[in-house]
Amino acid sequence: MARILQKRPLTPVTKLFRVEAPLVAAAAKPGQFVIVRVREGGERIPLTIADYDRDDGTLTIVVQEVGVTTRYLGALEVGDDILDLVGPLGMALEIPAEGHIVGIGGGFGAAALLCLMRELSAQGERTTIIIGAREKNLLILIDELAGVCDDLELCTDDGSAGFKGFVTGRLAQLIDGDGPGRPDSVVAIGPMPMMRAVAETTRGAEIPSLVSLDPLMIDGTGMCGGCRVTINNEVKFACVDGPFFDAHQVDFEEAMRRNKMYVEQEQESQDRAACRSTATEPA
């Protein structure tokens, strides 16, 4: 079990949890993830490690409530225990070569940049973070991310904060030499369409880029086969071979199809949960 020490709402559907997990925190590295189970008989879900503190023995995860299990998790409060929390899992991210490193976060994926960019900055690398959301109230961890990089760039679809447009629009400006300047390498974490767009933006400029294929993961051990993806014409598993891969070698057509494989089952699960909730409501 992992006891919740802090719970902090970031958006109406996104919550940050700091939990007691000394063994996991002692071994965690940027880019890795944990598997969480909230209740007996419930599914196991992978969650990227947003941050860790080895001295305090704590782990930080950020949860977006998009399905039944994440809603159960989001309903837990300080002092409650997460039934199971296993990790760290996955391959730690190999730190890019020296130079100007740009981390790109879309939506709640921005949280996964926190420990990564802190480590790069501590090594003396020049770092920029670009985060994006539909509007300013959905941008998360702005102050925390600003504290672990040299430059923080905000992007919103509606222009309510920072650059008006997608993160790739601001990335293209940096590649052209605007603002903090041209990246020497890029790391992108977020929705699959965003990461695909980042890959296409950096491909022509021949900028080494990594993307996290954690949206594909299910059981986190490679046994279910649900996160198979083709990398440079070879079959890999996002959970055990990744989650980070060379963005220019990912077969995004296949990855995006696989990412939608269980949409019907997810909807059925939500419908069943809604029926159970209605049945238990007082008359």
Residue-averaged pLDDT: 86
Instruction: Going across the biggest sheet, name each strand in turn.
Output: 6-1-2-5-4-3-7
Looking at CATH, the homologous superfamily of the largest domain is: Nucleotide-binding domain of ferredoxin-NADP reductase (FNR) module
Spans of at least 5 consecutive residues whose pLDDT stays below 50 are none
Structural class, by secondary structure, is alpha/beta
Shape: globular
In CATH, the architecture of the largest domain is: 3-Layer(aba) Sandwich
How many beta strands in the DSSP annotation?
Answer: 16
Counting structural domains, the number is 2
Could you tell me the radius of gyration in angstroms? 19 Å
Written account of the structure:
The chain has 283 residues and is α/β, with parallel strands linked by helices. The protein folds into 2 domains: 2-89, Beta Barrel (Elongation Factor Tu (Ef-tu), domain 3), CATH 2.40.30; 100-259, 3-Layer(aba) Sandwich (Rossmann fold), CATH 3.40.50. The chain is 28% helix and 32% strand. The protein contains 9 helices and 16 strands. The chain has a 7-stranded antiparallel β-sheet. It has a 7-stranded mixed β-sheet with strand order 11-10-9-8-12-13-16, with helices on both faces. Strand 12 (185-189), helix 6 (192-203) and strand 13 (209-212) form a beta-alpha-beta unit. It is globular, with a radius of gyration of 19 Å. The two termini are 35 Å apart. The mean pLDDT is 86.
